[in-house]
């Protein structure tokens, strides 16, 4: 098993950050014949990981849907941080903090328009960590 922690700058507002290039670089270092399973994990209570299309509006649509579903207002019992921050703590129940992606011949086995993204609605933490763990078929 290989494992590495990468740092991702998310800034001070809600965002979807495409991690696909960093993940491809991580896998490239392991070799072009590697097959296995890549786990992408965000060790934070207020962020998640999604596979979506980016660049064509889906990433902003996702944030708009999350704003509708999880409004940043005073309804939340969890009240520290920015106003409405309680919604950020509910986010990982909707956008899971981890996922597994098949790796075939050293590349993530994604569909044509799929990207692996960090979803972060919490502007209080401008930097996030993402754990990449690769289980391979190598003996």
Automatic annotation (TrEMBL):
It holds the Pfam family YjbQ. SUPFAM superfamilies: YjbQ-like. PROSITE patterns: UPF0047. InterPro entries: UPF0047_YjbQ-like, YjbQ-like_sf. It comes from the Bacteria. Belongs to the UPF0047 family. This is Secondary thiamine-phosphate synthase enzyme.
């Amino acid at each position: 098993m290989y494992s590495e922690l990468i740092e991702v700058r998310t800034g001070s507002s809600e965002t979807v950050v495409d991690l696909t290039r960093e993940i491809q670089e991580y896998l490239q270092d392991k070799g072009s014949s590697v097959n296995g399973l890549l786990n992408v994990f965000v060790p934070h209570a207020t962020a998640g990981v999604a596979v979506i299309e980016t660049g064509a509006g889906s990433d902003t649509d996702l944030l708009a849907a999350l704003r509708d579903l999880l409004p940043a207002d005073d309804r939340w019992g969890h009240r520290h941080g920015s106003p409405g921050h309680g919604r950020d703590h509910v986010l990982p129940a909707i956008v899971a903090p981890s996922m597994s992606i098949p790796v075939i011949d050293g590349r993530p086995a994604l569909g044509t328009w799929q990207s692996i993204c960090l979803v972060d609605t919490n502007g209080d933490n401008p930097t996030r960590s993402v754990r990449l763990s690769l289980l391979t078929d190598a003996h």
